[in-house]
Design a protein that fits this description.
Layout: E1 17-21, H1 28-38, E2 44-48, H2 61-75, E3 82-87, H3 103-122, E4 130-139, E5 142-148
Parallel strand pairs: 1-2, 1-3, 3-4
Antiparallel strand pairs: 4-5
Bound molecules: zinc ion.
Length: 149
């Protein structure tokens, strides 16, 4: 059965941001809501992979392909200026929250890995591409998104 969806973006060519996030379905809507409403970006390239960009730490083919696509598609084709590395609470790539002794230790690990991944990518990406980092954390109201400074 065919299905038609309205789309006002077909004739656009550029967007300011690329995002890489985890595939986890539990965070799909809230992650995008954070980027749109929390950070104020309506248009962005979206990369999803299990564990977001955590596999960059393995320094393997994932890193090579990811960098290649960011440069060829997001930067050269869409003129993206920023890349957001977005981690999430209870991520299976870390064995979930149950694998940490405390929420503080989970946050610490995310911040540490985000910054290592950022530095590994920075050394290979063009200088004019800025990398920003954020992660979500479970709070009684839902998820709090924290932009890492
Ligand atoms: Zn995950």
């Amino acid at each position: 059965m065919n299905f038609t969806v309205p789309n006002e973006n077909l004739n656009k060519h550029e967007c300011p941001l690329a995002v890489i996030k985890c595939v986890d379905f539990r965070f799909r809507e809230s992650d995008q809501e954070y980027v749109v409403k929390g950070l104020g970006y309506k248009d962005f390239d979206l990369y999803a992979w299990p564990g977001s960009a955590k596999d960059v730490l393995k320094n393997n083919g994932f890193k090579v392909s990811f960098i290649e696509k960011i440069v060829a598609v997001s930067k050269n084709l869409h003129n993206v200026k920023k890349l957001l590395l977005l981690w999430h609470w209870d991520c299976g790539a870390y064995g979930g929250s149950k694998n940490f002794k405390s929420p503080e230790l989970e946050e610490e690990q995310y911040k540490k890995d985000l910054s290592i991944v950022k530095n590994m990518l920075l050394s290979e990406l063009p200088n004019d591409l800025e990398i920003i980092m954020a992660y979500s954390k479970a709070v009684p109201q839902g998820l709090e998104y924290i932009l890492v400074e």
